[in-house]
Amino acid sequence: MIPYSSFSFFMILGILFVPVVVLGYKEKRSIVYNSLVHAVILLLAFASDIHQLVSFIVYIVWQVILVNWYAAYRKEKNEAGVFYAVVFLALVPLLVTKLLPVWNVSNIVGFLGISYLTFKTVQMIIDMRDGALKTVTVKEQLMFLLFSPTISSGPIDRFKRFQKDMETIPTREEYRLLLYKGINKIFLGFLYKFIIAYVINDRVIETPFIQAHTPLSTFIYMYAYSLYLFFDFAGYSAFAVGASYIMGVKTPENFNLPFLSKNMKDFWNRWHMSLSFWFRDYVYMRFVFWMMKNKWIQNRYTVSYFGYFLLFFLMGVWHGLELHYVAYGLYHAALMIGYDFFERKNKQWKIWKKNKGTEVLSVIITFHVICFGFLIFSGRLF
Amino acid sequence: MEIRHTVLELLEEICQTDAVKENVDIELFDEGLLDSFGVVSLLMGIEEKLGIRVGISEVDREQWSTPNKIIAVLENLA
Q: ipTM for the complex?
């Protein structure tokens, strides 16, 4: 059973949450009961396919061993080679999952949500390398990795942020607000995913007119698919965030009105935020820091552009190794570099002055540019 | 004092405006003065000039949102 995809899932979730809510109102939290909730949801998600369940368990054991070994090692030493090796080993299950389909081997390693779990583990290893994370117990790591509301598709939380929520139990008033917001988000999710996204898919995308590949139908499909993608994924994210809130965890948001973005930088601060912030913090910033420190490239803008290229190329490939995902990544890399260049030059040239008119125009242009990106992403073009 | 002075100098150079000195409570990220690239430059400057090493993952954008807050964080670390 895929989380948040059926009425029965929500029924089970609702029943499981009753004791959580009762305890929440009493300013209490039962780790034992919450663990049981996570276990039931994980079993629902994976038990229908024994391969997935086995892969999932092996994967978790693997990551726990890696993180704990590295935490112990880091107390004594801090060699770059060891760090890279550990990151690589943490990535191996994901790499194999992505590569097996390319080699036409049936996928026995993968399971639902593997890439999101990999983000969580790699993040912990990098934080340890930085010295930002010193000790982590197996229990803490398991609670972070196995937090079931976000298991299948994020949002990607940060260990230290998550840890803070785990250590504090909300007061009655705080919990009342969390519960209210959580339920609100879940109903917003129903509206987005099961009404709006469903209608767009059923009434537009799946119609014979759109399915026939004419230029006009592809043009309409581009906008329909973009809206569908947003409402479907934002709906899912609202469920995940809402369920987290009910369990007392303020999982970060994934979307902030992305279609009202004023430019490409603004867009990546509003679309799939937990993913783009992850790439910003753990790929782009690190790359820029490393390049500047070693002074391999003198020009700071060139360093930044290489950083953007790396970020979006990896983000594209992360979706899958198919050509259209790679193209999607490169498209956004080019846009980001182009926009950055324009923004800088505009400070001197002042062609694009800031006023109400240009602001509205910026939003309209950005919207169409984004939709074209999703058309590439959809795989309809190639 | 040294931390305050150095951080403000660095911010002025990175953000390319003396507004960061005039208003030490200015919201650096919200005002579009500081971005990820700026944060990296700032961290490099802090390490070079003050000898304080701050890892990228230690930068919490809420705790680093104004010049004053950044100075406070660094004074705690030093």
A: 0.92
